[in-house]
Amino acid sequence: MNEKNNIDVVIAWVDGNDPKHRNKLQQFLKTEDRRSDDISGSTRYASEGEIYYCVASVLRFAPFVRKIFIVTDNQNPDLDNFIQRNFSGNTVPVEIVDHKVLFGGYEQYLPTFNSLSIETCLFRIPDLSENFVYFNDDCFLVRPLSYSDWYVQDSVVAIGNWRSIFFDSLLRLIKPRKNGRKPFGFKDSMLNAAQILDTRRSYFHIAHTPHPLKKSVLEQYFTQHEDQLIANISHKFRNETQFNPQELFYLLMFKAQKCIRKPASRLLYMKPTGRRKGYITRKLRQFETSNEILYCCIGSLDLACGKDRTKLLDWLKNILLLN
């Protein structure tokens, strides 16, 4: 593989079912945080084994990657037997990176239960390639990819759409309170990133897909703005002042004319909770009838009924050819 084409994959993972993790989390939760699903909701930390399917999807459909890093808090998904059983000829190393390594020099902000804080430090992983793709563990590749699906020369490929800052800020302003506070969501963190960069008219609403990133861009920005890095990693739980580091990166790349937008139609997004009958069947039919779909994100799988959860996991097993 050409050195300049090396790509690493980084996956953030937590096993919220682990009693040690639950006990640690409870020690730091404030009373008001316990009432907020966007901060302490169990689905934020729950695991249904998605990490196995996520890793399998990379090995099956992007075997050109150099290395897979799994970022955890003193946990290990024990993937060795799974990989040996399903990918006996695999040559892609999988390395566990603990939060203590990620936050080296900033250990005072640990432990953290905050994905935005963790994502802000991903560029600090030792031996990370210049080009790396960030996955949440509920994101999967569902068709073969090539290098150009993520990078084209010095440019990155971003999946999403441009949205009005004024309109979405207005929606944020009138958002109703819940348990005494306004919920802080994915879109809010993107708006905060746009504000930091003094972006006035529109921001890039990134889809729930894997995100191609560049280590040097993030490293340079946070070296020059260490105060922003510290402010973003200092919250153990999601905070309304935080920004989405992927959004910040893409806005920087668009400004440098080194970002190529692709439509969100490349993503099959499913959240199988509180849906009408036939929801999953319709979604899977959408995949079958569109060769454009490369990615799948299944949100809050732990909240789905047993029948729907089994149907989705069996579908993933089938397309990933798992034993």
Q: How do the strands and helices of this protein lay out in sequence?
A:
Blueprint (H helix, E strand, L loop, with lengths): L6 E6 L6 H10 L8 H4 L9 H12 L5 E6 L7 H7 L7 E5 H4 L12 H6 L10 E6 L2 E3 L9 E2 L2 E10 H9 L12 H11 L5 E5 L4 E4 H10 L1 H8 L11 H11 L3 E4 L4 E4 L8 H11 L5 E4 L7 H14 L4
Parallel strand pairs: 1-2, 1-4, 2-3, 7-10, 11-12
Antiparallel strand pairs: 4-9, 5-12, 6-7, 7-8
Order of helices and strands: EHHHEHEHHEEEEHHEEHHHEEHEH
Order of the strands making up the biggest sheet: 3-2-1-4-9
* Global outline: globular
Our estimate of the beta-strand percent is: 15-25%
Radius of gyration: 19 Å
CATH architecture: Alpha-Beta Complex
Give the end-to-end Cα distance, rounded to a whole number of Å. Answer: 29 Å
What assembly state would you assign to the polypeptide chains in this entry? single chain
Q: Count all strands and give the number.
A: 12
As residue ranges, the low-confidence spans are 38-45
